[in-house]
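Reference record
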Amino acid sequence: MTPPTKKQQQESIQSFAQQKRDILKVDSKEALLIIEKSVSGGETSTENLNNWFDQRFIPNRVEINKDEYAEMCVNALKAVSNIAATDYGTSRQRDFGQLWADMIRGYLGEIAFVKFLKNKWGIEADLGHEKGSLNDYLPLDIHAVRIPPESFRKPNINISIKTTKWNGIWLDIPGDQFSHSDVHVFVKVGVGRDHLFSFFKEIGVFDNILKIGEEVGSLDRDDSNKLLKTIPSFSPINAYICGFADKSGDYEVLSYSGKIGRKNYTIEGWNGPRSSGDLEKLKVKENIPGKVEFLGIGNFSHEQGYLFNAGSLKWNMNDWDSVIKKL
């Protein structure tokens, strides 16, 4: 059977995204991004989209409501105020608003996983969000769990959670972080650049700002209404528990897959450790005259650690049940 052309693959993705848009409760652009990245991340192929959607995406999807968003928003604000103060004047200092928005996104991935545990197994989990240094601005562990009829206790395994947006396809664990947790969970959340503004609109922040603008003569009521309409409205946020990497897995060095172009090589999959010099070894092994780069990102800011494309992660209920038994 002749494999589909790139054009045919893209048409299949676009058609499927349009079909599932209402189920996903997102616009066409976001639906297309979700489906495109499931294919490029190796979770599925264009020929197997229906199975992926029904067996992997939908069972591992949760919605984050306004109250849960507000809770993560406040928790992130508590933490980021301390981080901003700690890093003031250093090369790592970031804009306070951007740091806050980034941390909210990370916390949304964590609350999504908490909901996943509750929905599937009736397990309650405590994230233990507290003020910390910038070193704590990493995927945070589940601090306590309650498996009925037990009371809350410390989990028997260490779980960390990495959050990305819909376009993320790589679970990147730098340095020696991989050894610090038993299970590394990868969560995708449907938040773009405007998620905090949408929430502010929902709770009336912009109504107050625009009212002051009218009072000082910066704009009139029509201007206020027009401006308010340009800000996206808040809606429940989709989150997808994409899968996990197990520290106890048997991983091989240079465990990659990819595609050779005219001169360059694009790495589309990776499943295990990364070390300095790996890309040069790959280049020699594949006899590549040009560059070796990772799909969608080019190169990472480090060379040491563990790396997984979304398609290489464990994700089905049997896999998750094995984690729950250890919890």
User: Anything to note?
Assistant: Residues 6-58 form one domain. Confidence is low (pLDDT under 50) at residues 131-140. DSSP finds ten helices and eleven strands in the chain.
